Amino acid sequence: MLLTNRINDLQAVRMSQIMMGTNANKDILDNTKLLTDEAKAASPNDLMIVVDSDQSDIMDQVLPEIEQFLEDLSSTGSEEKAKAATSWQEALDNLPEANMALFSIPGEYGAAEMETALKKGLHVFSFTDNISIEDEVRLKQMAHEKGLLMMGPDCGTGIISSIPIAFTNVVVPGNIGVVGASGTGIQEVTTIIDRLGNGVVHAIGTGGRDLSDKVGATTMKDAIVALENYEPTDVICVISKPPAKEVRDEVVQLLQSITKPVVAIFLGEKPIAHEGKVYLAHTLEETAKIAVDLANETAVKKNYFEAVAKSTTTLAKDRVIKGLYSGGTLAAEAGMLISEALGLEGLVKKEGYVLKSHGYDVIDLGDDIYTQGKPHPMIDPEVRIKKIQESAADESTGVILLDIVLGYGAHEDMVGALLPTIKKVRESRPDLQFVATVVGTDKDPQNYQKAVQRLQENQILVAESNAKAVQLALSLKGISLTEEDKVVVPYQGTTIEVPKASSKVMELLNSKPRIINVGLQSFNQSVQAFDGKSTQFNWKPRASGNKKMIKILNALEEHAEQIDTENQKVMNKIKNAQPFLTDVVPAKRVIPELNESTKTLLHAGPPITWKEMTGPMKGSVVGAAIFEGWATSEKEVIALIESNQIRFIPCHHVHAVGPMGGITSANMPVFVVENRLDGSKGYCTMNEGIGKVLRFGAFSQEVIDRLNWMRDILGPTLSGALKQNKNGLNLSVLIARSITMGDEFHQRNFAASLNFLREIAPLIVPLSMDEQDKQDVMKFLADTDQFFLNIMMAAGKSIVDCARKDAKGTIVTTLTRNGVDFGVRIAESADEWYTAPVNVPKGLYFTGFSEENGNPDMGDSAITETIGVGGMAMVAAPGVTRFVGAGGFQDALAISNEMAEISAGQNPTWTIPTWDFRGTCLGIDIRKVVETGITPLINTGIAHKEAGIGQIGAGTVRAPLACFEKALEAYAQSLGIETN
């Protein structure tokens, strides 16, 4: 918001808005006619930069300003940011003893996050506003039942154990405890108490609606009971905006029932007497003075009114007072006093006005109408500057009444920010009078005495309280205020048995707060400056701001223990897998569907029809049909398909996987990998090498000749070699060895392919076969760097098919794509596919090609990412990041760290030296994917979108989030959770 102001100061900018892409912020842009198509498409975690200017190259000025601002912000808070958490669990790990969460996040997400904090046993202090009344009632009831305090929403001020929280002044400790349904009301009372020589130990904010009929003063009652039981508190001070009568009476009944003396102010009331043991004040200043007398065990006076010195300046009768307040409670008090003095209609709450009568206006500039998409006027002077200019332009304005609120969170020099405007309007309106009140203490960062002195030096009248400032403003019109004496009359109501205080609330009051600060980083300053503890939680909306997903995630937390138990079973199967390469055989020997009378081809990804297939997959189909002898040309193959003589089945449906197009036919040799943990088997065709190959859609004679050689020579040779090893080849050991040598098993299989050759060569040498064939096989294996990829894929399939058996939970058991759709399966829903449109890979293209030529991603090779390698283990092969256009080692490290965020654990079987010997990622959890918005990164080859051209590059691609959202919704429904 401050950044927006900086950009608006640029001469060529007519208007700008810079804000996160939440729905509420988009509404703000829409209302100001700034909502562009790009902004409409933004997610809540995107920064929208919208500028209205006649200058076409304005962004050349704007973007450097933004970058500099963000860089300055990053450098000033680098130490805190280094420790900052990005999740609740991380925040609690950083501060295990935390007992409070301080919120300053967008209101549209606030309720759900506050509920999370309450469920984690944390008291809530919510500076966040725009929470529905229904949510406030629910959250406060939940907090009450859990023995916690829900302070807010829209709670701007608090002092807990002498620690200033949010927008708060530095007040000396004392024996007065304050409970306030008002922020600046608390600030006014506590700072006057400080200046009178006493102090405050606790000031518990409740939020402005706490005494409404719907909320019922839940927080105020709990806080009063706590202060009654907090021994160092000798006096309880209650501050409230205009309350509902029934609720006000309930609060008074509780106050009459406790043992400690009480002073209370219910703004809008003009009490004529004190009731029983509750002293009722008319103004905030009177409230503070009564509290100090009670704390000092001095008799309460009948009248605390002090007349201000009469002004020598007298304004004309037709001149009016305009109150321009940053504090809502101060505005309400001013409106009340002016209305009483002049016999006006009383307080209103309309479009920011608290008084609007006969030209007399008092405006709360902190009202939502002024702060939507903009900083609060205590932080930013812009809205008040404009209102000063507007009021000065109105010839009827005689006095402008202002508050200057000091303290933590407030503008570092509001006096300095407003003075230039005041001086300028006085040039044309020398008769215009300014009257100010300063809320603060000498211990505040801005210093109370210095602020007062600077105002007075500029001929601004300054009063020592808001009530006196109003009195001074009225005196300029020759109007005097008075207060009647008040005596104590008996309380006519009944008392109640005071409830017991919550042990958790008492623990909060008896120790310094330990705070998880969720939002504005600056709110840590006051806590840490006064020896409180806080940790920063750099919050962003869960589930990318998708409220439906947020609701589902919240509901699933009730089942977390059950889900984690089920997930652990799946993860144990993956971790304890025993994949062995046992044979290479024609696919039809192990896949019965390929022996049926109908001509059958297997393909990669979830189900797809010929019509939907992209170019390279169609090219692979043509090549496979020609290889099988079903046709001799592309035209003949298409005729077979159009006459329904060829059927298509996903590889995954028959325990197989296939790279890129994944097309597998009956006579293609496949690796057979057995997972000896339970006997599950996985099959995959062999790697053809590089160049024009079937998997990328090529089907020339060169491709067919290679397939024939693999069928007739390579496959039988490897089969014969493996048969000499009765136990088969232990792939887990080979994988563990190769990952330490720089492989990640999707884009880089160099070490694994050589390790495979090391194991298989001694078994090939003694085979009785043509020596030239033997030499050709050995050379092909030595030259084909990616040969092990297909073995890894078959191993992955055997691992996940074991893990999927009789499984439940939220662990992903399949990732795959067919060039049109990306498909996900999870443990819970077995064979059910959750699909979304697949993305086009980003990466490096061979000379002469670009992203325009690239086909959307395809292939079953993402089985590697499913079991935690490939893109999930990028740090194991940092060289790959350059090859796929993803940067260097730090980028690889960042990617693996990011992938760990969406994984349920790590696999100690396969450790990565360049990751401090951490295990590979284990168990992609759809809950974490949806919550963080981080989707698995997949290393992949890039095929040309036209059939027959083949590979044109290599890169990475992200799985689409929608797959995981669909899976999560279906999972929630399986638990009986309502998701609509």
UniProtKB/TrEMBL annotation:
Q: Which residues form the CoA-binding domain?
A: 174-268
Q: Where are the transmembrane segments?
A: none
Instruction: Kindly list the organism's lineage.
Output: Bacteria, Bacillati, Bacillota, Bacilli, Lactobacillales
A single GO cellular-component term from the record reads: cytosol
Q: What is this protein called?
A: FdrA domain-containing protein
Q: Outline the extent of the ATP-citrate synthase/succinyl-CoA ligase C-terminal domain.
A: 324-473
Q: Which GO terms describe its molecular function?
A: succinate-CoA ligase (ADP-forming) activity; succinate-CoA ligase (GDP-forming) activity
List this protein's GO terms for biological process: tricarboxylic acid cycle
* NCBIfam families, alphabetized: PRK06091.1
